[in-house]
Write a structure and sequence with these properties.
single chain, alpha/beta, Aspartate Aminotransferase, domain 1, Aspartate Aminotransferase, domain 2, seven-stranded mixed beta sheet, binds ligand TLP
């Protein structure tokens, strides 16, 4: 099931639409979604809202757009969000909430389990004072990408929600891979987002749809979010073509995520014995394996990935010595074993 001839572990974003998705897209009933008249988009949004336990939902172009629309809806200019220093929102979204929304970030250290410490959050909340921006939102990420794809638990999220509510703050969850977390923890996804004010999840990662994310919230929140999405140019027309694949993603691709998790475990096990690399062990792993190159290896992560790519295995360098391998439905168990052999070979040939 190689992608363009490669075992592609760079990201689960490389997943291609399944035959069932292509069929659903080709035959989707569509209308103009800016007018709210695309029946397939409406069906996806309703399904998503029900699945996550929210009143309403909105299809957006990407996870990045979902997060930005959420923050623009929660915050006014000069308001502040509390966000982790390793959060996707903070690192990989072009500083968009500042660029577009004049939203200020209060950045706290992510803990090794992907959380923000409750004490840190408590201390970061601004007192009402003319000197300070107003704290508006606490942002969580589940699963936490840069912290090893680790899942955040329902208990932790409940504690953050309680703290936020105590101080009149909102909680936004970047749940790009929230279904990976639910499957890994064996809980209903609702338990991972209960009490949050908004959640973004992605159809286009491990769930294999070609495009799209969904933002969930209250009816009033989604009504405002729809305006923000339009402002950003994210109002699409016959978007049912996209939503159709998203519906298949939710119906057919969630339960199987456990296979990706098993494959990631298998890869981590195979790599653990390889001298010269150190495999990270996140507390609640899902579909990501991060490993570091030990100082004795005479090349850096980008060069390591080039050498592996020459042997038809693609991975992503994250900085100079850290590498990410992500499992997904387009990588079989046998290919994971091959990838582990290629990695070991690249190390031995050093
Ligand atoms: N993450 C991508 C890269 O941007 C790093 C990846 O390959 O993992 N939240 C989280 C936690 C994400 O990991 C991503 C994508 C997004 C949001 C953004 O989603 P898109 O790419 O749809 O804008």
């Amino acid at each position: 099931m190689a992608i363009n001839g490669y075992i592609d572990l760079r990201s689960d974003t490389f997943t291609l639409p399944t035959p069932a998705m292509r069929e659903a897209m080709a035959t989707a009933e569509v209308g103009d979604d800016v007018f709210g008249e695309d029946p397939t988009v409406n069906r996806l949004q309703q399904m998503a809202a029900e699945r996550l336990g929210f009143e309403d939902a909105l299809l957006v172009c990407s996870g990045t757009m979902g997060n930005l629309v959420a923050l623009l809806t929660h915050c006014g200019r000069g308001d502040e969000i509390i966000v982790g220093d390793q959060a996707h929102i903070h690192i990989y979204e072009g500083g968009n909430s500042a660029v577009i929304g004049a939203i200020h970030s209060r950045v706290l250290p992510n803990q090794p389990d992907g959380t923000l410490s409750l004490d840190d959050i408590r201390q970061a909340i601004r007192p009402r004072d003319v000197h300070f921006p107003e704290t508006r939102v606490v942002c969580l990420e589940n699963t936490h990408n840069r912290m090893g794809g680790t899942a955040l638990t329902p208990e932790y999220t409940r504690q953050v929600v309680a703290l936020a509510q105590e101080h009149g703050l909102r909680v936004h969850i970047d749940g790009a891979r929230i279904f990976n977390a639910a499957v890994a923890l064996g809980v209903d996804v609702k338990a991972l987002v209960a009490g949050a004010d908004s959640v973004t999840f992605c159809l286009s990662k491990g769930l294999s749809a070609p495009v799209g994310s969904v933002l969930c919230g209250s009816r009033a929140f989604i009504q405002l979010a729809r305006r923000r999405r339009k402002v950003l140019g994210g109002g699409l027309r016959q978007a049912g073509v996209i939503a159709a694949a998203g519906i298949v993603a939710l119906e057919q691709m969630v339960d199987r995520l456990c296979e990706d998790h098993a494959n990631a475990r298998l890869l981590a096990e195979h790599l653990t014995g390889v001298p010269g690399i150190c495999v990270e062990q996140p507390p609640l792993p899902t579909n990501m394996v991060y490993f570091r190159l030990m100082p004795e290896l005479p090349f850096d992560a980008p060069e390591f990935c080039r050498r592996a790519e020459a042997e038809r295995v693609r991975m992503l360098p994250e900085g100079s010595r850290r590498i990410r391998a992500v499992t997904h439905c387009w990588v079989t168990r046998d290919e994971v074993i091959t990838a582990a052999q290629v990695i070991a070979h690249v190390v031995h040939a050093a």
